[in-house]
Write a structure and sequence with these properties.
By secondary structure, the protein is α/β, with parallel strands linked by helices. It contains eleven helices and 13 strands. The chain has one domain: 3-Layer(aba) Sandwich (Rossmann fold). It starts with a strand and ends with a helix.
Length: 319
Amino acid sequence: MKILITGGAGFIGSHLSEKLLQAGHKVSIIDNLSTGSLENIKHLMDNPNFSDTIDSILNQDVLEALIKECDQIYHLAAAVGVKYIIDNPLLSLKTNISGTENVLEFANKYKKKVLVASTSEIYGKSDAIPFKEDADRLLGSTSISRWSYSCAKAVDEFLSLAYYREKKLPVVIVRCFNTVGPRQTGQYGMVIPKFVKSALLDHPITIFGDGKQSRCFGDVCDVTDGMIKLMNDKKCEGQIFNIGNDTPITIEELAKKIMKMTSSKSKIEYVKYEDAFEEGFEDMKHRKPDLTKIGEFIGYKPKHNLDKILERIIQYFEK
């Protein structure tokens, strides 16, 4: 099978590429390297079943040619990371809405199955924990840039479901919850690689807010395994699934755990959200997925706990 991964040079995309190649598929990727990196895929370059196109999903001619030739599409390309979204609001909206529209339009033209990667940001600042796929959303003001990402990805979901319902396009939507692992960068605000790098260097570890906010961290191996199963199960078409891990930890506890595991001499520094991002910035206090649905559909259950995840990431940065 020939598979196209948009955003294939990204953290998740590169791990997904590896797995699909190992399964005997041909993999082509498209990535504009805005948040992805050639470093993530350099070990795949010599594989005759792998090809890369360095371009944007906003380039319709290039995207159409790639979709025409593939059998399945994993649409992971997106402007991601709170800092990136705030610093690049226009490009982020265009990439996340127009880019997804391009993917769906050409997928429908050539009738190719699509898995669309969405986000836990969809749920906004709701406190109805754990988040269920059919739960209501609660968002802040449009004057706060960080909510544009949630809104853009919601539009992606609406578009995907519209193509499924009206055009019978086979689509699966996956809401990722804090996927982590080797090759993830802290450049755009991803918390674990930032903390690990600082801890190994004995630099101060910066926590935004009071550190009492909690998150659940899913291993990229578990997430990509789940994506592949969802893509290849017909009963998952037209459905939305949470994916990740459902064991929470506060950001403050996370920092202390990483410091202990690295024998770090780092100090923790607390910074107000407004000082780090923008005036009026809001964060979610807690973010935890309900994994009941994905468990029922494909038997998904996370295999990696946080200690195992952190061990792999620490080893990666030490190298």
